[in-house]
Amino acid sequence: MTADLLSTVATGDAARAELGRLVTYVDRHSVAFCTSSWWLEAAARLLPAEPVVITVRAGPAPVAVAALGVTKKRGARRISLLGGELNDYGQLFHDDEPAAVALGEAIAAWTAEQGRWSLDLDQLPPGDPVAGVLVDRLGASLGEGPPMPQIAGLGTDYRISRNRVRNAQKAINRVEADGRTWARLTIEDAEVVDRWLPRVVELRRGRDHGVGRRSHLDDPAARSFYTAVVREAVARGRAAMNLFLVDDDLLAGYSVVMFDGATHRFFDCRVADDHQRYRGGSVCELMAVTRARDAEDVTGFDWLRGRTEAKFGNDELFRVRVTASSHRSVVAIDEWEQATRQRVKAVLPAAAVRRLVAR
């Protein structure tokens, strides 16, 4: 790259307009559904964080882009990737190392102008040169993210165990033993998804409350974002929704899977809290995995962040997290608040926790 590199910063409505101009560039570099232009545009439009787009150009052509979000909390500006904690894959887009370095310098310079601030860029790829610049310029810390369980070689090198298939069949047997009917439904039509989304959202919230935690879908903005991206992904042929129905109309569980080329990613899944004995989540989970196994062009299945007993496979990925702050007190207050919440939750009876989170 020989042309001079110039950076610009757009915020608010100007950032939304800039994302519209960068659709082709972003999608050419995107590595997952949550780094696509339509995901970022929905986040800029629907989530409360103010969007900030930093673009590096060589002449008129973009060569690097950072899509960020800024919120204000306890007197400090909190800077994250656009979409924040909802992103299982974070990405700072760049053509090559010189462009990446220029982008890192531009992010660092803009961040340093924000007064009291904290920076938390999560789920970036290991070895990202932009992250290295931020470590040098802002004194940022670089840490390993949570494990992301994977199934590599699905259908060839890896076989789904008979026990997992039997567990799903046991769920169906329970329905039949109760004298009820059942159906497994896969939806890939956006208009049909529209009809089911309100019930999926309420099932998700009910299950989260049932285990004593707030649901991120309790927040109206997060709920609007969730429904918008699921519908858009299905409309684009990038997702499917699986449902397990009892007696035609009782929603016992669901899963949503995103399609990223040769990899299917497990976006969301829940069992109906009032009908756990039917194991609807397990049924829909197996529907997702067996579809990926049977598809000729799919070779991997990605469970996204976090280990659980339900997630199985033969590999794990780890992304990285870049954090920094203008003042140590900004982070100290956050740590104190988190510790206080954990102490309060630990001493409250489980029933009291469920009542609180359901409010």
Question: How many H/I helical runs?
Answer: 11
Radius of gyration (Å): 22 Å
Named at the architecture level, the CATH assignment of the largest domain is: 3-Layer(aba) Sandwich
SSE arrangement, N to C = EHHHEEEEHEHEHEHHEEEHEEHH
SS-based class? alpha+beta
Distance between the termini: 56 Å
Instruction: Let me know the CATH homologous superfamily of the largest domain.
Output: Gcn5-related N-acetyltransferase (GNAT)
Name the CATH class of the largest domain. Answer: Alpha Beta
Label the overall shape.
globular
InterPro entries: BioF2-like_GNAT_dom
Pfam family, one: Acetyltransf_6
Organism: Nocardioides panacisoli
Protein name: BioF2-like acetyltransferase domain-containing protein
Structure description:
This is BioF2-like acetyltransferase domain-containing protein. InterPro entries: BioF2-like_GNAT_dom. It comes from Nocardioides panacisoli. Pfam families: Acetyltransf_6. By secondary structure, this protein is of the alpha+beta class. The chain has two domains: 5-145 and 319-326, 3-Layer(aba) Sandwich (Aminopeptidase); 154-298, Aminopeptidase (3-Layer(aba) Sandwich), CATH 3.40.630. The chain has helices at 12-21, 23-29, 37-46, 97-112, 129-138, 162-177, 190-210, 220-235, 280-294, 328-347, 350-357, and strands at residues 5-11, 50-58, 61-73, 76-81, 93-94, 117-124, 141-152, 182-187, 239-246, 250-260, 263-271, 300-302, 315-325. Strands 1, 2, 3, 4, 5, 6, 7, 8, 9, 10, 11, 12 and 13 form a 13-stranded mixed beta sheet that branches. The longest helix has 21 residues, at 190-210. The relative contact order is 0.14.
